[in-house]
Amino acid sequence: MNFMPSGVIMHKHIYVIGHRNPDTDSIASAIAYAELKKKQGYGTVRAAMAGEPNPQTRYILQRLGLETPLFLADVHPRVRDVLKRQPVTAASSMPLKEVLELFHRHTIRVLPVVDSANAPIGVVSLLKLSEKYLVAGTDRKRGVDTSQRSLAECLEGTFLTGEATEDVEHLHLFIGAMVEGSFSSRIEGYDPSTLLVMTGDRPSIQTAAIQKGVRILVVSGGFPVADSLLAKARAAGTTVISTPHDTATAAWLARLSTPLSCFVDPRFEKIGVGESLEHLRLKLLHSGEPAVIAVEEDGSIAGIATKSSLLTPIPYALILVDHNELAQAVPGAESVEIIEVIDHHKLGNPPTNQPITFMAAPVGSTCTVVATLYRERGIEPEQRIAALLLAGILSDTVILKSPTTTGRDREIVAWLEDVTGLDHATFGREIFSSCSGFSAYGTPEKAVRADFKQFNAADTLFGVGQVEVVGFDEFYELKEELREALKRIKEQDRLALAGLMVTDIYTETSLFLVEGKNELAHVMGYTQLEPHLYELKGVMSRKKQMVPHLLKVLGAL
Ligand SMILES: [Mn+2]
Question: Fewer CB atoms inside 10 A, N or C side of the chain?
């Protein structure tokens, strides 16, 4: 049976993940279901968790030698999830000639310019470049901004005098294709130190240019220059470059030798790869820029994000286990495709765009549902996975004693006992006694908060925590501290009542320590052992027994 939609989903990473504040069932079902998927040939499936495991879960994983699932605190899609890496970049010293080739070869419109550490320092857009370059102005016709190094490289030239300096100079280009007299009167009025003269096999022009002390003389066609002239050039400070190109080509190449630094726009939009796609969307929307440069944590360039990045499919999807309501799901789940739900709670799931696998059953634990899937498909779980499933069921049903336990839970437990050779009662006791009680939580307040849920009776907001114990000795030792913790929680959360169920899994009795609503004593209907403390024989389930009872009696007040 193929339970996963084929096609595009196949190469996505799929995380099987339980609810926030995960309990054992939530983490056990995620691991076991991810394993089932792998056994069915889905290699990209991985178990995850939306929070740190509680002490009981930690104990079980350690006992079975299983790894803690991947901790996903937040699954909001990030810039890195949709970014195309290895962007085309250029250094600011690159001549325009090569830059245009990059634009052409990669069919791009925006080119980021990076420094030697690969960090972006600006952008060049093809549109702005063509505007700046092609629209003629009075100075544009002659003006050439270039360095001697860039010029010589573009001309494939050789320095006969002078050297490859890096400074960008603003030069005026003249072609010496006329008699010497006309040439000299042409360049009259220009500062010789800004003159770039190109000529071929014309000693008279060469001589005139050097006598005038022009900045650069380019001799085209590879023609030789007399040694005596070169000596004069050296004395005059004129750089002489020999190029194999003809004069027309050389003039064109000189214009394209302008380094990119002359065109870089230092204002650009930047975003970290770890930032949310939503942030990227807002940047693209409000900046008016067609592209945003994405940078790695170290500041180096990661890629270019454009509007099409926002349409790129997210490379991962979720399978929710042990919950179906987004309010309980890992933050960001609403922005990610959910492809399956495996659960045993009331439905509160949002609508989906696609048909999905949705399995929910009113059984004692999600692990019961997952184990059923193994059995139905004739796939025997690996021993420690079977033991993990067993642990999940025993944890959620308090060793099959909770009123939430169903016949199907018992049946699956019997099957898992066969597979693992474990006795459920012994294993259950081990699980609960190893980590039950208060010491595992650190402080009394943490013990109360670890599994604290809020409820509303008419307009009365109240909260109930639950701790499972083996015997009440430790509870009585900590009772006053726990009461202080309940007082603080009641204040902090603005509750009318804050209570703690301390459930002894052997005697199947809960003690209920409570702060607030003192008149409760008249209506509670259970033995009051002392002020603020009630004994509730046979009460183990908060959701099926305690909360319905409190809703009833608080409503009657
Ligand atoms: Mn559960």
Answer: N
